[in-house]
């Protein structure tokens, strides 16, 4: 029974540690791993009594710095992609509105041209009918 409790407590402590490192890394698992490795190297140095800044700790510090920069760069890239998608959506919206306005204007212009052509045809036909009557009177027709 006691062994089971120890195992459970060890699992809870392990999960708590994982949660701590993930939280402190902003949810980035690679950065959390590098932070953990850095802390482990620092703890080992303190236990051994080594001097700070020795090779392994310096390497882990550099890796942690790299992962932090990579995570920030990824975050900025994601933000830029989101802004670009938003701008593209706005552009498509304006493009659709412009196409609709152009189509409406084209249809209105077409109606006006057709109306003008019909009016012209009517006037020409009336003129032809009047001229037939006048020419017919001159030449003895009608």
TrEMBL record:
Its keywords, alphabetically, are: Coiled coil, Membrane, Transmembrane, Transmembrane helix
* Keyword Membrane assigned: yes
Residue ranges that the Swiss-Prot or TrEMBL entry lists as coiled coil: 70-108
Regions crossing the membrane? 6-23
* Name of this chain's protein: Calcofluor white hypersensitive protein
């Amino acid at each position: 029974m006691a062994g089971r409790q120890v195992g459970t407590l060890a699992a809870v402590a392990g999960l708590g540690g994982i949660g701590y490192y993930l939280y402190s890394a902003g949810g980035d698992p690679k950065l959390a791993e590098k932070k953990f490795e850095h802390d482990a190297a620092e703890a080992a140095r303190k236990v051994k009594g080594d001097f700070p800044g020795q090779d392994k700790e310096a390497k882990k510090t550099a890796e942690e710095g790299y992962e932090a920069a990579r995570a920030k760069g990824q975050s900025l890239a994601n933000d830029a992609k989101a802004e670009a998608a938003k701008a593209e959506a706005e552009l498509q919206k304006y493009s659709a509105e412009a196409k609709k306005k152009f189509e409406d204007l084209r249809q209105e212009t077409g109606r006006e041209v057709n109306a003008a052509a019909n009016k012209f045809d009517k006037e020409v036909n009336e003129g032809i009918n009047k001229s037939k009557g006048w020419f017919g009177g001159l030449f003895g027709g009608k």
